[in-house]
Design goal:
Layout (H helix, E strand, L loop, with lengths): L9 E5 L11 H5 L5 E6 L2 H7 L6 E4 L6 H9 L3 E4 L8 H8 L7 E5 L6 H9 L9 E5 L3 E6 L5 E5 L4 E6 L3 E7 L8 E3 L9 E2 L3 E6 L5 E6 L1
Parallel strand pairs: 1-2, 1-5, 2-3, 3-4, 5-6
Antiparallel strand pairs: 6-7, 7-14, 8-13, 9-12, 9-14, 10-11, 10-13
């Protein structure tokens, strides 16, 4: 049975959107950070099981996941937290909130895109909802996105010519970059501004930091 890891510093959270392309490479996401806490928001359970993983926790109203899969996960030891259909937050939001009291350093959310456009937009705006107590990474079929705030700059490797876009979810001040062709130094980017669209990696380390606001740094596949 998948007992909840007592020393997990990383969480993998499956949302119910399109299956992420990373399903086959999820072991790579987990490499070096196990034990990881595996959480499914409603139909995210389908993606989790398809990846050959057993979840530790199920969260949602479960109106869009086959009951047979729920029973299968529970038989394997998954904890089920059921919420009413009429509620004030989405299943994904509730799953994220439930991680706030855990000893977690980073949450990687898979399956955030696809389906209804309103669901997709709300999923991608969740990073701006509050000051989350962990680093956030959102992955879908086309983008691998890191959430950058003042106390959480980001650094990652990108191959030459990789498209990297900087999307402000609020007014973002002090945007500074390294490793991108079009460098920014202390710039302010407002929501709707396309200044950060389609930058290009030089190849190697990319670094992005801000002094205020919430910024999505998206590596485009």
């Amino acid at each position: 049975m998948p007992c909840v890891p007592s020393v997990a510093r990383e969480a993998i959270l499956f949302a119910g959107g399109d299956a992420p392309p990373a399903l086959g490479s999820i072991p790579d996401l987990l490499a070096g950070v196990e034990p990881a806490l595996i959480v499914c928001a409603d139909a995210g359970l389908v993606h989790c099981l398809d990846a050959g993983l057993v979840p530790h926790r199920l969260v949602g109203d479960f109106d869009s996941v086959p009951q047979a899969l729920l029973r299968r996960a529970e038989r394997a030891g998954a904890q089920r937290l059921t919420f009413p259909t009429d509620k004030d937050a989405s299943d994904l939001a509730l799953a994220l909130l439930g991680l706030c009291d855990e000893d977690i350093d980073r949450v990687t959310v898979l399956g955030v895109s696809g389906g209804r456009t309103d669901h997709l937009l709300f999923n991608w705006w969740l990073p701006a909802w509050r000051d989350w107590p962990f680093a956030l990474r959102l992955v879908d079929k086309r983008c691998d996105a890191h959430v950058v705030v003042a106390h959480r700059p980001v650094r990652f490797h990108a191959d030459p010519e990789t498209v990297v876009s900087l999307l402000p979810l609020s007014r973002v001040d002090g945007v500074s970059t390294a490793g991108l062709r079009y460098a920014l130094h202390g710039r302010t980017i407002l929501p709707g501004d396309t200044l950060g669209l389609s930058n290009v990696a030089d190849g190697g380390a990319v670094r992005v930091q801000v002094s205020g606001g919430t910024l999505l740094v998206l590596r485009v596949r």
